[in-house]
Specification:
heterodimer, A: 273 residues, alpha/beta, Rossmann fold, 2 domains, two-stranded antiparallel ribbon, B: 401 residues, five-stranded parallel beta sheet, 15 helices, 13 strands, 11% strand
Chain lengths: 273, 401
């Protein structure tokens, strides 16, 4: 079975992965368990799923969770409205319920002819009980459609990546079935690597100065929203486009608006200077 | 395999269950960990720990367990000292001659360690075999090959297993001081989205209506359901007495969190001074113009309100037990304790949240009342963990634990 081949992930061209995270990803793939990722916004939780899909050459399915999302939506949707509409006009095939069953993201992942990576993004946004409603499906990789009396079984077990911002605690029963990893904010060493991947041409001098300034901003007290990796990358881009000399970063933060998104934070920072 | 570690974790208050443990065993079984100790630490953490707030506890237990195994404490003080302050030395040839085991695993490493401890005399740095700093030995610290076990020391090459000794995740521990946002998250636990069966089916269920209409060949069939709403209403009583001033930051954060919570059916906040007497106050200054009768409050809010009292419970006994014990404001006709009993009698869901329990409890007569109140009400400290506990209790009600 091709599934049995041990797939391993070691980061991708544009995604630098820390060793503990790499181990967590690989163990989750090998043990066929969902990988639950938590971490500050901007630590690349969502990006990871893309990187895994890219590195393993698999298709990525993204299921974005909202506060109103129900577990059922992942499985299938029974388009009763269309059926009702069709029935009014005596359309042929109204009796055939299967015509009105549309697979959701999980259904799509199960039905796919090839293995896919399924990203369940920001699971904590949904109702408290939401993760529990998915337990059976994620465990057994199958679900039953009562309307058609059909069981949908995964052709290839998808690699499931789940992200959470920790807004709600997830139920214990759900947690027990996951491999968990908390993505720490990258330390300067790792961050240097990450920036280099995006700007291979960057001067060493500017890189050091910008990283130092970045961590100085990040560590300043009273920030409401700390800048993350993506802000740093935008900022470095702005710096190199603007031709800012590295020396200037020691005393001032040009383009501070790129790093700090909240008005209050900008004010705090400008006050300090 | 490693079952001792499983029970050690559990004994240390780390909630690991058989499901997680079997995951780890499966990983060992499939030889996913190989013989690397770094990987054993990372993978065991990924499999067993389910929240970053537990990382620190896990690190501590992991560190202390494997330290126990290696009998770190039993190492002579001199050796410990030398490991922590390495002076690089030349490799000694006689130990080079000894073969290094090809495949290393934890047990082997531990065995080697205890065996060598007996054997080893004096210091040894830069070697490939003995316990020491630098070099390629898998015991000691700052080793280049980095699959060994680090015995304290700082992580120079960032590879050693012993990183768990650094307690990087200390900040996440649940009993750390909390922010208003974290309070809000804790308060969100207090919700009971219910379709209570005693309620009328009053909401049109559009989905079900369409479905049933479809099933009836287009004949309109209306379906109703019970509304799903958070049924919980909260009554918060906050102490603004003098001794509470120390906790005012924390309490105002709690107040903000409650104030911003939109998920309750109703929230009412009243203030009191040291203890609940004949009057409660709408304003934290507890001045006469904002006073309402406590009996009115008791009559006003139904028994299904959840009541949380926030106070440090430290007062002189007569303030709690005596008629007229209130040293500020009006003479109270009914003793504070009697008012508290009346609350307790009416509200089956009631907790006491005490900010001073975060600290070591003092001695003396002021604390006597605190102990008395602790006996009377389920009491929780004003920490994140405490608040979560209190919310759970409010949800669950009086059932004795």
């Amino acid at each position: 079975m091709p599934d049995q081949l041990r797939q391993t992930f070691a980061g991708s061209g544009t995604y630098i992965v820390s060793e503990p995270l790499m181990e967590a990803v690989n163990i989750a793939i090998a043990l066929k368990k969902p990988l639950l990722l938590k971490g500050e916004p901007g630590t690349g939780k969502t990006m990871l799923a893309q990187a895994i899909a890219e590195a393993l050459g698999l298709r990525l399915l993204i299921w974005n969770i909202k506060s109103t999302t129900k577990a059922q939506e992942a499985l299938y949707r029974y388009d009763t409205v269309q059926r009702l509409y069709d029935s009014q006009f005596g359309e042929a095939g109204v009796d055939e319920i299967a015509r009105y069953i549309h697979p959701g993201k999980l259904g799509e992942a199960f039905l796919s002819e090839e293995q896919v990576v399924l990203l369940i993004d920001e699971i904590d946004k949904a109702d408290l009980e939401f993760p529990n409603d998915l337990l059976w499906e994620l465990d057994q990789m199958e679900f039953f459609i009562p309307e058609t009396k059909e069981t949908v079984r995964a052709k290839h077990r998808p690699i499931v990546i789940i992200t959470s911002n920790g807004e709600k605690d997830l139920p214990d029963a759900f947690l027990r079935r996951c491999i968990f990893h908390y993505i720490e904010f990258p330390d300067p060493e790792l961050m240097e690597e990450i920036v280099k991947v995006h700007f291979p041409q960057i001067e060493e001098h500017l890189l050091c100065a910008s990283l130092e300034a970045f961590y100085r901003v990040r560590d300043s007290k009273g920030l409401q929203k700390k800048p993350g990796t993506s802000e740093l990358i935008d900022w470095v881009r702005a710096l190199s486009l603007g031709g800012i000399p590295a020396e200037r970063l020691a005393e001032a933060i040009p383009f501070a608006g790129v790093l700090l998104k909240k008005k209050e934070d900008l004010a705090v920072f400008q006050e300090k200077r | 395999m490693f079952t001792g570690f499983f029970y050690y974790l559990r004994a240390g208050g780390f909630s690991v269950g058989p499901v997680e443990w079997m995951t780890l065993m499966e990983a060992l079984d499939q030889d996913l960990i190989g013989s690397s100790l770094d990987r054993f630490y990372w993978i065991s953490r990924a499999a067993l720990v389910k929240s970053e707030v537990e990382y620190d506890r896990y690190d501590q237990l992991f560190f202390s367990y494997f330290r126990e195994v290696e009998e770190y404490a039993a190492l002579s003080g001199e050796m410990k000292n030398w490991l922590e302050n390495p002076r690089m030395r030349k490799t000694s040839e006689e130990v080079e001659a000894l073969p290094l085991p090809e495949k290393r695993n934890l047990k082997e490493l531990m065995d080697r360690l205890s065996w060598m401890k007996k054997l080893q005399e004096g210091e040894h740095n830069q070697g490939n075999f003995w316990i020491g700093a630098g070099g390629k030995s898998n015991l000691g610290h700052s080793a280049q090959e980095g699959t060994g076990l680090r015995l304290a020391g700082s992580s120079k090459n960032r590879r050693a297993l012993g990183t768990c000794g650094e307690r990087k995740f200390q900040d996440f521990r649940k009993n750390a001081v909390i922010t208003s946002r974290q309070f809000q998250l804790a308060l969100r636990r207090l919700r009971q989205l219910s379709e209570q069966s005693n309620q009328e089916k009053s909401e049109l269920d559009v989905e079900e209506t369409i479905r049933q209409t479809g099933d009836h060949g287009g004949l309109l069939t209306l379906a109703y359901r019970r509304p799903r709403k958070n049924q919980i209403a909260l009554l918060l009583l906050m102490d603004c007495g003098g001794s509470m001033r120390r906790h005012s930051m924390l309490c105002s954060q709690l107040f903000q969190a409650v104030d911003q919570s939109t998920h309750f059916r109703d929230v009412k906040v009243y203030y009191f001074h040291n203890c609940v007497y004949d009057e409660l106050f709408m304003d934290p200054k507890c001045e006469a113009d904002s006073a309402v009768s406590t009996q009115w409050v008791l009559n006003q809010y139904g028994a299904d309100y959840r009541v949380a009292v926030v106070g440090d419970g430290t007062m002189s006994p007569e303030e709690l037990f005596d008629v007229g014990g209130s040293y500020q404001g009006k003479f109270n006709q009914v003793a504070g304790i009697e008012w508290l009993r009346r609350f307790q009698k009416k509200y089956t869901h009631m907790v006491w949240i005490n900010p001073s329990l975060r600290e070591r409890m003092g001695r003396g007569f002021l604390v006597e009342t605190l102990y008395y109140l602790k006996e009377m009400f389920p009491t929780y400290p004003l920490t994140l963990e405490g608040l979560e506990g209190a919310m759970k209790k409010l949800l669950r009600g009086q059932s004795k634990e």
